[in-house]
């Protein structure tokens, strides 16, 4: 489903639409031009910004590239996976967490099988860091990288998101 140049309407699986607020649309537009950090209160619509930015990227990126969304906890990954799946139907989504025994995937073939036809990956930082470190996922395959709960990155140099960066 296309949304006329990411114009603010997000079709969902239930055919409802979400109209971005002005500040959300502005953040999406800015993120199309440059890297941005979106810092807003809980419940202010950061997830909708991430979803709309993802939709826009899916329309322009190469077919083999993926959008990778990172969250610090499994619970947040599950929550975001549900949001992305219901708001961006029709594309392959994959949730990857430690409980999937990702650290035991030791071949490129395993990673290729799991990511086949996947356009949006939701995972913890550790999953992507491990995949990048071992060369199973190449940076060139990532069209967009989104960090959820990014405000915690600045709190410690040891945070896994710093290592991903």
UniProtKB/TrEMBL annotation:
GO terms under cellular component: cytoplasm
Cited SUPFAM superfamilies: P-loop containing nucleoside triphosphate hydrolases (SSF52540)
Signal peptide residues on this chain, from the entry's feature table: none
InterPro entries: DEAD/DEAH_box_helicase_dom, Helicase_ATP-bd, P-loop_NTPase, RLR_Helicase
GO MF: ATP binding; nucleic acid binding
UniProt-recorded name of the protein: Helicase ATP-binding domain-containing protein
Superkingdom of the organism of origin: Eukaryota
UniProt-listed Gene3D superfamilies: P-loop containing nucleotide triphosphate hydrolases (3.40.50.300)
């Amino acid at each position: 489903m296309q949304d006329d140049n990411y114009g603010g309407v997000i079709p969902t699986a239930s055919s409802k639409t979400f109209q971005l607020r002005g500040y959300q649309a502005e953040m999406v537009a800015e993120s199309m031009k440059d890297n941005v950090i979106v810092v807003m209160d809980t419940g202010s619509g950061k997830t909708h910004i991430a979803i709309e930015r993802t939709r826009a990227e899916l329309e322009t990126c190469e077919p083999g590239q993926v959008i990778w969304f990172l969250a610090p906890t499994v619970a947040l990954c599950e929550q975001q996976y549900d949001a992305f799946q219901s708001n961006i139907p029709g594309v392959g989504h994959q949730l990857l967490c430690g409980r999937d025994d990702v650290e035991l995937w030791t071949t490129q073939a395993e990673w290729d099988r799991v990511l086949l036809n996947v356009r949006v990956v939701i995972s913890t930082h550790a999953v992507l860091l491990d995949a990048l470190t071992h060369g199973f996922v190449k940076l060139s395959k990532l069209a967009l990288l989104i960090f959820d709960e990014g405000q915690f990155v600045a709190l410690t140099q040891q945070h896994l998101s710093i290592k991903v960066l």
